[in-house]
């Protein structure tokens, strides 16, 4: 019965997304990228990282987001649990990073791009019960977006078509250049079920940007899957699937 | 890097206390509202984090943080870019002193930061009505049933700037500010009793607010020397009967709000319409609930509600906006279903549906809030420890 409820709710979430006018949504996302380029890349960074402590005895973890790799965002994360809990909370430092390599396939004479981000973090974990951990941590998020297209001036601007509706003509842009950095906080709870799977809830906040995000995640022995929620973003809901290897 | 070190230190302060007790809640709600052919999606997030530190035999310290967000939902409509969104952060520290087995004193300090914006492209932190609210106060409780509290509240609107206020104050203020203070006194009583397998819950709250620098509008349209004050009564009575897997409840709620604030319409002094005690009202609500319990903690609830709200001195309006001699009333009837599913020990889902019919004797064409039908569907996920 519970699985049925989950399936029905997932279907509702997907169908409501499909109700939207795809063309308008894509254009708005592109417009968002052009006017606030940092937003999307901060969200990519959040999607690929896993700052939730686990219950495994192994300390070292390599981790990558499968879905963002499919979108040509090469990414990875390394983390290491320094200590086990013995009076002092467990401490897990790590670093995640990504690089948008898909843009390097575009012809160099028309386009140049360098888009990447890095985020070192430290998570403190404390057991509340045998199979429940509370965690809190902080991270530094840095990213650089440098996009330049050289033949923009020759293009027919009417091809964009929707510029009048939104009062902004994307084709008039010669490039996007931006650097972002902020310190974020996150906290949450993770719970290990009898099956061994871990169910986690996380809320995060960047004080300077006043940006909120939250995650609900299920972790197995090899994969993490879940959803990220970014209020005040055109892509409010991100689904993710991550692969991890514990050593 | 300094910020990261500071962030880590703050994190450590939260997690270091070995004997502390943690409370955590993350609630995410996605909703859709269909009204008059319009479909609107909404998104709410609430996070609560509380840490309770035992200090000594009869003393403990509670630290609490709450983050909330309200805004457009999963699918943004064409107009969603211009819809309102808000986030708030509330920090509170409360000292719990157990004077005797039944007497508690609870002094507290609180700080609320609220950010609002009316469109997607507006920056956070620049909202006209962004609010910083400081609270200092204490409550005195007898047992779990009776408590008295006093709070001194300071409201600051850091971005507020309004030519209309300049006009109302006759251009006598150098800086048009909305900042004000409030002395709030409250009394609450709660009681529950069990009689022949029926549970009776009774709750009564009285609060008195005396504002400082929040002026009452005068008949001339300008604010006068008097400050605003208000009285609010709230009473709730809930008898409940559990029989096997069925729980029946009937919640009766009453509310009286009495405020001395007046209201004016219009910008031209020659045509200003002045209404006294515009915000005073009385509310009565009846809410029958039937819940069917399944498994260990799942439940299906069928809820009905009828609410009648009548304003003490606010007249209704004709379609053109002209006031009538009748006092304004609003009636709201709703019926809904709510299904609570416990997915795991700490994780629950709560899909729900409600139909709401609201009507009033206000026919003003621009007062759509008073007369509408709406279908509300929502799904909430809660992770609570």
Q: What can you see in these coordinates?
A:
The complex is a heterodimer of chains A (247) and B (385). Chain A is α+β, with helices and mostly antiparallel strands. Chain A has a single domain (21-246), classed as Beta Barrel (Lipocalin), CATH 2.40.128. Chain A is built from 5 helices and 10 strands, in the order H-H-H-E-H-E-E-E-E-H-E-E-E-E-E. A 10-stranded antiparallel barrel of chain A has the order 1-2-3-4-5-6-7-8-9-10. In chain A, strand 8 and strand 9 (223-229) form a beta hairpin. In chain A, helix 2 packs across helix 3. Chain A is elongated. Chain B is mainly beta and 385 residues long. Chain B has a domain at 24-157. Chain B is built from 2 helices and 18 strands. Chain B has helices at residues 2-15, 163-168, and strands at residues 21-35, 38-56, 59-72, 85-98, 103-117, 131-142, 146-156, 180-195, 198-217, 223-243, 246-259, 263-265, 273-275, 281-294, 298-317, 323-342, 347-360, 372-384. In chain B, strands 1-2-3-4-5-6-7-8-9-10-11-14-15-16-17-18 form a 16-stranded antiparallel β-barrel. Chain B has a two-stranded antiparallel sheet with strand order 12-13. In chain B, strand 14 and strand 15 form a beta hairpin. The longest helix of chain B is centred in the N-terminal third of the chain and has 14 residues, at 2-15. The mean pLDDT of chain B is 86. The interface between A and B is large, with 54 and 53 residues.
